[in-house]
Each structure stands twice: as C-alpha cells, then as structure tokens.
Specification:
Structural class: alpha/beta
Shape: globular
Number of domains: 2
CATH architecture of the largest domain: 3-Layer(aba) Sandwich
Number of helices: 9
Number of strands: 9
CATH class of the largest domain: Alpha Beta
C-alpha cells in the first residue's frame, strides 16, 4: 500500500470561499489539530482522507491590501502558510474575476511557486455565464502557469470531489503525518469554541490575555433549524475581563458578530451566539479545561 501525505494551502482574497471549500473537502472529518504536532507549520485547520492519501489543509488568512500592523501580520501568515505547503491552491470568485487583490496575489505567487505545485480553483461558478468563465480561466492561465484548473461551487459541492481526487494524487509519497485516531470527528462544540478564540486573537492582537480559553457551554438545536450556542471566555484576572469586553462592550460585540458569521457559514444555517466572560484564576491548573480544548493535561507538566 502506497500512502501519500502533504500540506495544502488555500489562498485567496477574504470571502473567496475558503472556509466553505475546506468544510466540503474535509466533510465529516473536520479536525482542528493542536499546534504541538508541527510547530513550524502554519496552523492546521483540517485533515481529509482520500483513498490512501492524507490531505492536511493549512489555515491561511485572506490576502488583502494591508493597512495596519495586524493586517500585515495576517498577510505574512498567509504567505507563510503557502510557503510551508507542498500544494498551493489559489481561490478566485468567478463573478468578481481578476480584481486588484487577485492581481497582487498573482504577483506574489511567483515567489512561493518554486518547488511546489500551484493549482487554480474558480469558485462560485453558478453566478456567471459559461462564456465569462471560459474567458476568466484563459486570462488567469495566461498570467500564471497553473498545474491544473478546477471550476467549482464550494457551497453546492460541484467539482469538489474532482479537486480532492487530484490533490490526493499530487501529494508526495510518504507516511501519514497524523495518526488516524487524531483525525476522528471532533465535536462541533470544540470547533465553535476554536472559531471564537480565533476571532478574539484577531481582534485583540497584542492586548490579548495569553491565559485565556473559550468553551462552548451549551448547544441547542432549534425547531426552525437554527442553533443557539452559549460560550464562556475564561480569563485569569479582572483586568483581562475588561480587555475582552472592551469599551462599552464593543470588543465582545465585534467578536460575537464575526464568530457568528463564520459559524453560520461553517454550519450552513442560522446561528444565535451568546458570549460571557468569566474570571477563573486557576483554569490553567484544571484538567477539565485541557480536555475541553482537546489537550492532554499531563502534557503540560
């Protein structure tokens, strides 16, 4: 049996559909793997199995014109994720075409293309006529020598299986990077908590209380198909609580909104998200908190 494994980076402008595509690719095997396994890699977002191939997706923020220090850090992280991967996939929205942002990404691609396979994925194809699609495909391939082009609708699932099959064949031969039991389905509660924690990190940046965790305390399926999610953000000091809440509660509102938007996209249905901040001085010494995050308390010794 020949096994294959490797890292795949999805890059593109914000809202190009990376989260939706990732969710489709990974399917039920959604896994947010702890950073301990590959500390030098960009954060692993999901692992998909296709035959004997293990496709490990690295998380890259959307690429855009940076204005602030945080923006620059996010853009650097995105390119860093691409440089760490064996395969890079550029995601372009069919109806938006070659925007200024896509132009900039195409210019930057030359630097990360050395020694790795670069594929083109045109998403949201259901939003344009076929002639427009053919023209866009031709234009993009004239600007960069893509190994392969895929026309997909991540939302509807069109073309995603072909893309996953191609990735599985393109990855280098080698042992799997993660044991099978480590990519078992993670509870949606943990994924939801991770999404909120990520939003807090992006919003607070340097002010972020390092000793902070997020837990999904309650998950209620409603009759109308929506989900009501209650989460608690634990901090170790009163001062940290103030930072997370922000002036007149603006920080927590902003975090709640962006987390709710991503959860809605991720789950494909309406989400009602309620966040609370609690001070818990000793949470770092509580084994239960570690298992909530998918970590082994004993590893912290």
């Amino acid at each position: 049996m020949t096994t294959r494994a490797g890292f795949v980076a999805l890059i593109g402008e914000p809202n190009a559909g990376k989260s939706t595509l990732l969710n489709r690719m990974v399917g039920a095997k959604v896994s947010i793997v702890t950073h301990k396994v590959q500390t030098t890699r960009a954060r692993v977002r999901g692992v998909a199995m296709e035959g004997e191939s293990q496709i490990v997706f690295v998380d890259t923020p959307g690429l855009f014109q940076p204005r602030r220090r945080l923006d620059r850090a996010m853009v650097a992280a995105a390119w860093g994720g691409a440089a760490d991967a064996e395969i890079v996939l550029l995601l372009v929205e069919a109806h938006r075409g070659i925007t200024e942002g896509v132009e900039r990404i195409l210019e930057g691609l030359a630097d990360v293309a050395q020694g790795r396979t670069v594929g083109l994925v045109i998403n949201k194809i259901d939003r344009v006529q076929s002639e427009v699609l053919l023209g866009l495909t031709k234009d993009l391939n004239e600007r960069f020598d893509f190994a392969e082009t895929f026309l997909i609708s991540a939302e509807r699932g069109h073309g995603v299986d072909d893309l996953r099959g191609w990735l599985a064949k393109e990855l280098p031969e080698g042992p799997w990077l993660y044991p099978e039991d480590q990519i078992a389905d993670l509870p949606m509660r943990m994924i939801a908590a991770e999404i909120t924690r990520e939003k807090l990190t992006l919003r607070l940046h340097q002010e972020l209380p390092y000793q902070m965790t997020v837990e999904t305390e309650n998950w209620e399926e409603r009759k109308d198909g929506s989900a009501k999610i209650d989460q608690v953000i634990y901090v170790v000091r009163d001062g940290h609580k103030g930072i997370v809440l922000g002036k007149r509660g603006e920080t927590i509102k902003s975090v709640s909104q962006s987390s709710r938007e991503e959860l809605t996209e991720f789950l494909g249905r309406k989400v009602h998200l309620f966040l609370q901040v609690k001070v818990r001085p000793n949470w770092l010494e509580e084994a239960e908190r570690y298992s909530e995050m998918g970590l082994d308390f004993k590893d912290g010794n």
